[in-house]
């Protein structure tokens, strides 16, 4: 399973934050609305209970009124009305049992129910017979008992009404509280969602849109031919990785372009040299021949002048040979080369030629490669000769050989004055030299030979005084003919 990228995670988190705010706010509002609905239902039930309690109170008064009329009239003409009212009290009391919620309310309803049964028994078994028999004393006594039961029922009914009204007030207060809370959450969502969306937008612009714009700008600069274009994105995500890959790509393109320009330049010089070498060498040969014959007969100042002519003619011939070296292809097949033996051979050749003087040359390490011995000898000879010349009369040249898995490295370091930044940038250009004498073709030819082997030659800033040249050669020849 592919792991989400850093940008995908950030966008997912930002979207999740917006969705979470919406979900949380919506859930809270829905919970409040549900509770408001429940409280409204409860309030309606309690209001209905209040009406039921008031109806019970009214029915109780009707029952007592019909009992009173029976006493006043002294007959049973209101018995039917009494029975209707008593039945209504029983029915309403039974209905109110289902509306009573707590044990206290249910106890009050049961008190009313018991008092109603006692009142009905008193009326039927004591009060009504006393009325029909005309027993005034019994009538007054039973009427007092009936009045006490009615008062008890009315007191219980008043308690129920008061308790029910209090429940209604509490439900109304809770509904108002829930409505206020729901309004606050809705307002928070309406204000917070745009603010969070703006924050997410700014975050996306900074973490996504801005890097994309920088990448687009860098690509446009590269497309316009700016090989020094760089993208400065250092974030540890795919944009930072893409920027690093882009910078590496531009560096590689720049290096390849420089190599191509250098190769084309050297190839052009080589083709020119090959075209004119014959025309130049023939006159030089004639000049050297005549100068040699004239030197045999000349004496004094004339002989010195002829020597100057001969030296300059030889120098011209060497320049032509160096130019021809740029156009000569490598031998067809590479061969194993022991770089340690090659370096020691070059040191011995310089010593025998008297070019070392008091300069010390140390060769360290072992390395092997596959290449063309003569060409590689020319590279090492050019580098060591330059190092010895840079050291002056005394100094030290250190040659380090390093064998790696990918190839071999030859490091040539000297204790001379070193190279300036400007000189390092132009060092491998044909005819550029920092010495008072020389053609300025040695390093250009050396670089051409090394690149033809599939390697690289570069001048680095040394860790101390002097210059530091590094030759890297692949383990097997990857050169071109």
Automatic annotation (TrEMBL):
InterPro entries: HAMP_dom, HATPase_C_sf, HATPase_dom, His_kinase_dom, HisK_dim/P_dom, HisK_dim/P_sf, Sig_transdc_His_kin-like_C. The chain crosses the membrane at residues 12-31, 182-205. Its EC number is 2.7.13.3. It holds the Pfam family HAMP. The keyword Phosphoprotein applies. Residues 206-258 form the HAMP domain. The keyword Transferase applies. Residues 275-477 form the Histidine kinase domain. GO terms for cellular component: membrane. It catalyses: ATP + protein L-histidine = ADP + protein N-phospho-L-histidine. PANTHER family: PEROXIDE STRESS-ACTIVATED HISTIDINE KINASE MAK3, SENSOR HISTIDINE KINASE. This is histidine kinase. It comes from Archangium violaceum Cb vi76.
């Amino acid at each position: 399973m592919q792991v989400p990228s850093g940008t995908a995670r950030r966008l997912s988190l930002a979207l999740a934050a917006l969705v979470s705010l919406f979900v949380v706010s919506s859930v809270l509002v829905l919970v409040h609305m549900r509770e408001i609905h429940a409280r409204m239902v409860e309030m309606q039930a309690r209001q209905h209970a209040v009406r039921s309690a008031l109806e019970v109170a009214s029915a109780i008064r009707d029952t007592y009124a019909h009992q009173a009329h029976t006493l006043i009239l002294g007959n049973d003409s209101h018995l039917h009305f009494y029975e209707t009212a008593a039945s209504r009290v029983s029915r309403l009391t039974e209905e109110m049992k289902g509306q009573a919620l707590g044990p206290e309310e249910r106890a009050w309803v049961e008190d009313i129910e018991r008092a109603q049964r006692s009142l009905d028994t008193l009326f039927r078994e004591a009060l009504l017979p006393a009325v029909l028999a005309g027993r005034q004393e019994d009538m007054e006594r039973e009427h007092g008992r009936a009045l006490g039961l009615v008062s008890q029922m009315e007191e219980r009914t008043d308690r129920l009404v008061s308790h029910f009204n209090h429940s209604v007030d509490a439900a109304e207060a809770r509904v108002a509280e829930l409505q206020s809370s729901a309004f606050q959450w809705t307002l928070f969502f309406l204000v917070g969602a745009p603010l969070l969306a703006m924050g997410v937008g700014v975050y996306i612009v900074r973490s996504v849109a801005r890097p994309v714009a920088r990448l687009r700008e860098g690509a446009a600069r590269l497309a316009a031919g700016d090989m020094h274009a760089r993208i400065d994105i250092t974030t540890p995500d795919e944009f930072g990785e893409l920027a690093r890959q882009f910078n590496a790509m531009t560096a590689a393109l720049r290096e390849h372009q420089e190599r191509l320009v250098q190769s084309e330049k050297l190839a052009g010089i080589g083709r020119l040299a090959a075209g004119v070498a014959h025309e130049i060498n023939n006159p030089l040969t004639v000049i050297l021949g005549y100068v040699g014959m004239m030197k045999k007969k000349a004496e004094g100042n004339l002989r010195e002048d002829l020597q100057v002519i001969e030296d300059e003619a030889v120098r011209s011939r060497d320049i032509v040979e160096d130019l021809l070296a740029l156009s000569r292809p490598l031998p067809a097949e590479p061969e194993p080369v022991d770089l340690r033996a090659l370096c020691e051979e070059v040191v011995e050749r310089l010593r025998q030629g008297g070019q070392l003087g008091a300069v010390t040359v140390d060769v360290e390490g072992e390395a092997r490669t596959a290449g063309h011995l003569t060409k590689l000898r020319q590279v090492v000879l050019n580098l060591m000769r330059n190092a010895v010349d840079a050291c002056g009369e005394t100094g030290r040249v250190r040659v380090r050989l390093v064998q790696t898995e990918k190839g071999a490295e030859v490091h040539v370091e000297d204790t001379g004055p070193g190279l300036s930044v400007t000189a390092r940038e132009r060092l491998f250009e044909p005819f550029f030299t920092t010495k008072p004498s020389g053609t300025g073709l040695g390093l250009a030819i050396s670089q051409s030979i090394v690149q033809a082997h599939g390697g690289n030659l570069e001048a680095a800033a040394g860790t101390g005084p002097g210059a530091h040249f590094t030759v890297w050669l692949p383990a097997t020849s990857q050169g071109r003919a």
